[in-house]
Each structure stands twice: as structure tokens, then as C-alpha cells.
Amino acid sequence: MKQIEANNPELKSWVHVAPDSDFPIQNIPFGVGMPPGKTARVCSIIGDKVIDLLEAWDLGLFEGISVDREVFANRHINDFMALGKEKCREVRQRISELLRVEDPFQAEIHSGRLLFPVSQCQMLMPVKVGDYTDFYSSEEHATNVGTMFRDPDNALLPNWKHIPVGYHGRASSIVVSGTPIHRPVGQTKPADSDNPVFGPCKLLDFELEMGFVVGKDTRLGQRISTAEAEDYIFGLVLFNDWSARDIQKWEYVPLGPFLAKSFASTISPWVVTLDALEPFRTDGPDQNPEVFPYLQYKGKKNFDLDLEVAIQTENGDEKIVCNSNFKYLYWNMAQQLAHHTVNGCNFKVGDMCASGTISGKEPESFGSMLEISWKGTRPVQMPDGTSRKFINDGDKVVLRGHGQKGSVRIGFGEAAGKIHPAKEWE
Amino acid sequence: MKQIEANNPELKSWVHVAPDSDFPIQNIPFGVGMPPGKTARVCSIIGDKVIDLLEAWDLGLFEGISVDREVFANRHINDFMALGKEKCREVRQRISELLRVEDPFQAEIHSGRLLFPVSQCQMLMPVKVGDYTDFYSSEEHATNVGTMFRDPDNALLPNWKHIPVGYHGRASSIVVSGTPIHRPVGQTKPADSDNPVFGPCKLLDFELEMGFVVGKDTRLGQRISTAEAEDYIFGLVLFNDWSARDIQKWEYVPLGPFLAKSFASTISPWVVTLDALEPFRTDGPDQNPEVFPYLQYKGKKNFDLDLEVAIQTENGDEKIVCNSNFKYLYWNMAQQLAHHTVNGCNFKVGDMCASGTISGKEPESFGSMLEISWKGTRPVQMPDGTSRKFINDGDKVVLRGHGQKGSVRIGFGEAAGKIHPAKEWE
Known about the structure:
Two copies of one chain form a homodimer. Chain A is of the alpha+beta class. The first copy, chain A, has two domains: 5-124, Fumarylacetoacetase, N-terminal domain (SH3 type barrels), CATH 2.30.30.230; 132-420, Fumarylacetoacetate hydrolase, domain 2 (Alpha-Beta Complex), CATH 3.90.850. In chain A, 18% of the residues lie in helices and 27% in strands. Chain A has eleven helices and 26 strands. Chain A has helices at 53-58, 69-72, 78-82, 85-99, 107-114, 139-149, 229-232, 245-251, 259-262, 333-341, 369-372; strands at residues 31-34, 41-46, 49-52, 115-117, 122-124, 132-135, 166-169, 174-176, 181-182, 185-188, 197-200, 204-205, 208-214, 233-240, 243-244, 265-267, 272-273, 281-282, 302-303, 306-312, 318-325, 352-354, 380-381, 387-388, 396-405, 408-420. In chain A, the strands form seven sheets. In chain A, strands 6, 7, 8, 13, 14, 16, 17 and 22 form an eight-stranded mixed sheet that branches. The longest helix of chain A has 15 residues, at 85-99. Chain A is globular. At the A-B interface, strand 7, strand 10 and helix 8 of A face strand 7, strand 10 and helix 6 of B.
């Protein structure tokens, strides 16, 4: 495990941080927000206070770190990430120093200009996403899907344990937590009909995933080894890969999911750096059969991060429908990147990869309604007396995630999206 | 058909244009090039002369058209497209006027500063591509593939005539004509083995496609009707969707093609405006069964554009292996956009969609080696005495395309790529 000073669990801040906050002084993630009356800018967060990094720059608090003002006066963190991990570490370290109780520096006297209640800040998409790839890296999820739709005795397809299976997704429709989502319309084919019908999706689902953001370009033709891969991963977000199961079923043969996914994906607003997640490294599942050399790796490449999904009904009730963990994934991020680039495919700063639905072995850890309700055969009872096979209009789906080690909790906040009725044809 | 003055077939230029040039005064496409000793900038072309539009701006030749210098002092045409079709039409019209034999204006005396032999200009990617979608819109291609790999009696899948089937592709690896392409490596599974092997692709193929470039944003949740669709299409390019057939076969179930395609796609450097293609509108194939209302359209939405594919061997011999036509497509671009956005998926300026392989009914019009050699069973004889089932190292694949109406020929130039051996593992 890398020793990173800003991760020191002993550090305390002069900013109040509740014990169950995802954002202690050891986190310092990056995002883009609009503090009250201000333009969009690169921010961080501690406790429930957004830190305005542009203002920090203007106050001279990054003195000695060579970084242009435009990097923070920016609607995305891409230019910040493109500075490279060393520079980003210097900035994270400096923010950590400014926040420490032992060394309030000048920040406390400036705090009225620097810190804003998160409830008063509009958070925006942190990253301008170039390409987006969705993997399918949970053995339990792939097994559940194969069991339901194909053959329980051969649930995993022959390629699954050789390849971190993935496909290209739609980048333009990745939105930040809080963005309203309209139920998509499209073609579906009822089981009892030879012909498709057109209308609102009837089987709307979430998928509990984690996404990682690439912070470094590669050239076309360049491969990334598993050993190098983490140099290219700036940080992680919660990722809800909304899915229209009925649209997907009709459209996806032979070229894969398309409109069933492209109407929206919801991410959390704060990109938590891979650095901040160092304490949560853990071993991944054994891989058998042995994978090709380009997919072999050394060290702990999985991360022990508790994940949950809540459904909130319109009356405000909340039901946790899934408790899973990022460590369950069969294929880790380093393997995903090594596979993605083995053919020479290039990456650009801001490209994003998601894990695929993260399911565990137990039904309560399944990461989609498709699995939780087992194709609708096991409805979920909600606190308001209704039940759910899939997601209803008016439901808000909230993803949350964090790691805990001793007293330090590093989390992601929320990726939340409320489902609104399908739009009428204009 | 829209009357566009710059399309007038009577127009002649003071710049010499060979009769078989793709770029007469009626074309005026847009691209990005580096004239000798100059930085990248937005350009056009007439005959074999690149027109430096930044220089034209500096010379005041766009006076009266409100457009910022930065639009032309740019590595991509995205900002130019984002001005909107009306503004782009004004610019195209002005360029047309500057080039006319009757009205050389001041351009001829400036021509030493404005015009550069295309052989001396390095052409770059014209567009910063956001998202890229590949359709599968040729009935003949889909039928050929279905016949070879599934059931000749049910070659088309049940969804094919209801849906313009498509999938997301990789945007980062779309490269401009002339960029060397290395044979990809990856996993494949030989037919006689239970286990995959790793190594260079053995069945490397081209796909003859046309791509269109979106020039106008939509909001998330906004649908584009077939009637509106062409307002969103700025122009077209030739598109070679390089494909590794053996990698594809092993990886593509259940989520579609991934590394088999993402190593590279090659486009032509000039974006030919939809306006310039007005004379070539034609009817598309009858669609039966009737499509859903959101896919119905009025008017001529196909385009009569002759397309060809040549393979050049290292000794310089060339063999034309395919003569096809863009008009063969079953699903037109307006239907593709209407389908793509029916679920609310948003578009951004610079997004690209490709048609899928464009095959005709006759074997000489098949748009991929897979079809031409019928899975390798009908090798193609080359002028140098060798034969081809797929593409060899050292082969250069050249796509060309143009429409001809009377004496006016509007073309695309070339999308060319030479295959280099697979890179050694670093």
C-alpha cells in the first residue's frame, strides 16, 4: 500500500466533519460545482462544505504549485486531471494542509470565501466524458442473468472467464446525481406477439456499478499493462447504468444493448481519487482458468467498498434493496484497462469505464431489480405497502458507497435519480 | 430538392479543376489541414488546391459574415458546425463567390496565400468526435452475414426490419485517411479448440461505410423526428470500420463487438456538406413491414453516391474489390437519428454515426472481405498473382465515393489506411 500523507488517519480538520460523513479530511475528492452566486468551478468537499478551489487559487493558497487558474475556472476537471497524478497529489496535499486543525494557515480566516454548504451548491458533471465503456465484470451478475435467460447449468458464456467482457456505451447521456430521468419510450416485443409494440418502457431498472475516470492519454497502438494501469486511473464514482429491460431484450441481438441504456446513466458528483482509496485495497476472487499473461497482475487490485441501493417512494419512504461490495468483482480495473488497450485502442483524459452490475452471492446483494425480483417473480415489499418488480414513475433510486477502516470512512456521497413519466410525443 | 446557389452546375472557377476531380466549385467541403509551414486550421478544397480559410478570414474575405477568427484557427470544425447551418451556408456561399471565374474578387491576387497543393498539406481529423454510433442498415449485408453464420432461410433477425439496429462504437480511435493501422492482437478461439489463443488477428477486414457528422446539439430527453433530422446532419465522410473477424467472433456474445472494432476506424478528411449532396437525393428501398410512425418519413432520403473499395499491394498494384452505392441502404440517416433519439438520448456537435457496411445485391457490390470472399471460400485474385481472403500486412485499403449528375461530380476523396504488422509486446 502506498503511503500518502493526506491519507493519514490521524489527521483532523478545523472544519466539522460528522462521523458518518463520506468526506473527511482524508478524502478530498474533486468535482465541479456552482457555489451560491458563482460560476461553475472545480471544487472539493469536506464534511458538508464544498471547497471552492478557484477562490483558493485567487487567494494564493496554491502558491508554489505550478497550476494555471484556468484549470480551476473550468466546467470540468479534465484539465486538472491532465496535469498528471503528481501535480494532482500536490494539490490534494495542499488542500489537506489548509484544512488541518494544527495548521489552519490562512484558510480559516478566508473560510467565508472558500467554504459553502453543499446544500447551497449546484453540482455539475465533474468530467467531460469522451468515450465510455461498460464492463460486465461481476461473476454473480453474469451468472444470474445467464441462469434467468439461458441455461442454469451453463449460465456463464464460454468467453466470460477469459475476457473482461465489455461494450461501448453512450457518453453524452451520462448525467450528474439529481438530474431527472424520464422513462424512455421505444420498441418492445411482448412474449405473446409476433410483432413489436411502441410505447413507454415497462421494465425500467437500475444497475449498481462503479465507474472509473481515466486521467492520462495513450497513443493509438499503445497497450497499458496491468502494472501500469492504475497510473491511468484518476478516480472513481458511483455509476447507475439505468436499463430498460424490455427494450434491451428486443434490440440487443446481435450487436448489444443500445437504446435500452443510452437514455441516461447517473454518476455521483465527486471523483474520489484512487489515492484516497489506497486503504481499502484487497484481494480479488481467484481466477480459474488461468488468464492470459496480459491479464495477469500482482498485488491487491480490488477495493473493499460497501455499496448500497435505496429506492425512495414519493412519500419519502426509503427501502434499501441492495447491499453489495466493489470487492466482489471478478475482473479488476487494471485487467479491464489492459484488455481494453491490448488491441491498441487509445484512451483520452476524461474517458470513463464502468464495472458492470456489482452483485454478490446472496440475493440481498444483487445489484439490479432484474436479479432482486428475479425477473419479476419475487416482488420487493416497500414501506408504503406497495411492491416493486422494477422501478415506478416517481421512484428515486439512490446509490451510495464508502470504505471504512478504523475511524476513517471514505465515501462517494450519492448517485441519485428520480424517474419521471415518459415524455409525450411532441 | 432545395435550391442552393452554390450548387448551380453552371458555376465555373478560376482555379483549374480536372473533370474527374471530387472537388469542383459546387462541392466546397470542410476539413482541417496544415498548409506548408502553417499550424492546423479549418480549410476547404477546390480541385487539388486546399483553401486556407483562416488566411481568408485574415484577408477580410469573410467580411459581413459574423464569424470569429477562432472558428477557423481551430484543430477541428466543431465550432464552425456549431454556428448553425445558415451561417455555414453563408460561408460556403462566400467561398463559392470568391472562386468564381466571373468574379474573382480579390482572391486570385491573394491565391498564393490562400491556395496550397493538397499534396503539400497534412490533413488532420476534421472533427472532434464525441460519441460514435455504428448502424447496420444494409439489408444485403445483414442478410449475407445471417446466411453465413446462422440460417440462410432466416438470415435476417426478427428485429431487423423494425429497428435500424445499431451499437455504440469507439470514438477515440477514429483516425484520418493516411494514418497507419497496426494489425490488432487479441483473443480468438480456433474452431478446433476448446480454449482461446492469443495473438495477432488472422481475419482482418474492412467495412465500406458512410459516416455522418452531427452539427447541432439536442437536450437529454429531446427526440428528433425524421422531418427534422437533416437539420442535425452537417455532412458526410467515407468511413472504413476496420474489423477483426476472429476477435469479434469470440468476444461479441452477448454484448456486441468491442475490441474487434475499437483498434481503428478510418475516415476521409473532407466533410462534404449535406447541402452539396442535394442533387443526389433518391428514393430508398420499400420498407415492408410498415415501420412505426416515428420511423416514417416523407421525400427522398437516400443519396445516389457510387462507392468503391480498392486494395493496393505493396508493389503499388491496385484492385477494385467492391463497387457499391450509398442508395442501397434500407434505413436512411433520418430514420437512424429518429431511432437513436426516440428514447431521449442526446446528441452533441461532432457526434458521428456510420451506416454499417454498404453491400448491394451482387457479389461485386459486397462491402467487406467477409462477404466478398464468402468467409474465405472465394479468394480474390490480385494483380500481383497473390490472392486475398482477408487483408494482409502491407495492404492499403482505399475507400472512394462520389455522386455524378450531368457534368457535376461531387466526391469525398479517399479514406485510405495501410495495414502494418502487429506491434510486438512491449
